[in-house]
Amino acid sequence: MSTHIPDVIDHLAGIQSGSNLDVLRNQRPQARENAQKSYLALFAPEFPGDVTALERYAVATFVAGLHGQPHVTEFYSAELQRLGHPRRTDVIDTEIALGAAKGPYGAYPEGPLTVENEQGPVYQVSADNRERLGARLTAALEHAHLLVLHPRDASPAALQKLLDAGWSTTDIVTLSQLVSFLSFQIRVVAGLRALADASAVETNDAEYTQIFTGVLASGAV
Fold first, then answer.
1. Helix (H) or strand (E) holding 218
2. Which Gene3D superfamilies match (predicted)?
3. Per-residue buried b or exposed e for 42-80, using 16+ beta carbons within 10 Å of the residue's own CB
């Protein structure tokens, strides 16, 4: 299980002990530790409440797929399969394809930012898969899509759809934390993999140092 992996971000980014990226991440030991603790709190919680492991990994697979990160998607999909739900994995793959878009979409409140308003497709789980997923997971995927690609359109009505599908207010907080963490994790992994790719080509020391300094300054890793 992934909970036995000492550092999931290292695993997803392909970071080897003693490598330049390992040294880089060690410059922010607390950030590194907290990222792993956040992962464990969401995917191996001591008190999971009513949000099941199936729901957590299904949403994670879907969100990673929407972000277009195949290696992260495969990681969470494999965990979903280990839970004994290979058919659910196929359904999630179908929904990723249906929900794929660029984004972010939505409208800002009236003001200077309205120039950035952009309409985009509103995702709904396909009719064929709604029964397979059930009301709770269907609502969760639709809400996750909203948060990832239509964040400006978040509203009380969107939260009510989750409540109507059987998500409690505590469950909704967990779901929101899950999507937020995944967005963070995926971006960090993508950045680290980009750095790894950059180090694999001919880059002079000054350029390489500049890249590393920028990442360190962000404090994200």
1. helix 205-218
2. AhpD-like
3. bbeeeeeeebebbbbbbbbbbbbbbbebeebbebbbebb
Q: H/E/C letters for each residue in 6-33?
A: CCHHHHHHCCCCCCHHHHHHHCCHHHHH
User: What's the whole-model pTM score?
Assistant: 0.87
Residues 32-67: pLDDT tens digits? Answer: 999 999 999 999 999 999 999 999 999 999 999 999
C-alpha 132/C-alpha 198 separation (Å) is 43
Beta bridge partners of 118: 106
* Mean pLDDT score of the chain: 89
The highest-level CATH class for domain 2-106+135-218 is: mainly alpha
Closest among 86, 75, 54 to 2, alpha carbons compared: 75
